[in-house]
Automatic annotation (TrEMBL):
Protein name (record): HIT family protein
Motif segment (Histidine triad motif): 102-106
HIT domain ranges (all copies): 4-117
GO molecular function: catalytic activity
GO biological process per UniProt: nucleotide metabolic process
InterPro entries: Histidine_triad_HIT, HIT-like, HIT-like_sf
Catalytic residues (UniProt): H104 (tele-amp-histidine intermediate)
Amino acid sequence: MNCIFCSIAKKESPAAVVYEDEQCLAFLSIQPITPGHVLVIPKAHASGLGDIPPQTCGHMMRVGQRVAAALRESGLSLNEHPCEGINLLLCDGAVAGQTVGHAHLHVLARFVGDGFNLGHADLPLATPQVLGERAEQIRRALSSLPPV
């Protein structure tokens, strides 16, 4: 397997590491959306969200939380604006924007005027009937999965 994130986790490829423990590694993205764009990865290869063991997945979120707090306190700024917000994002699958075949949690420092926008105010509202039908489909799928 030729996985750049596995290579980084094994210290075979360079990275600007900000955090490491037995399960996870956090390092700066080489294509940052904003200053302080950090990627949190499981050290063991996992192609997508469903491949990460639940304990590791929860640990990744706790590491992301810690990195987020550090970003707010770091003094990083963009056009003299300090980090005032955080986005956590995990893209699962190419259609969702996953560009590296190793699961990773994006921790994005957000700054006033940074140009990155997740808002969708122009999207139409779903009707209660449509929401009910979709909720039922999801509940049926959840009932066939192992419990949390």
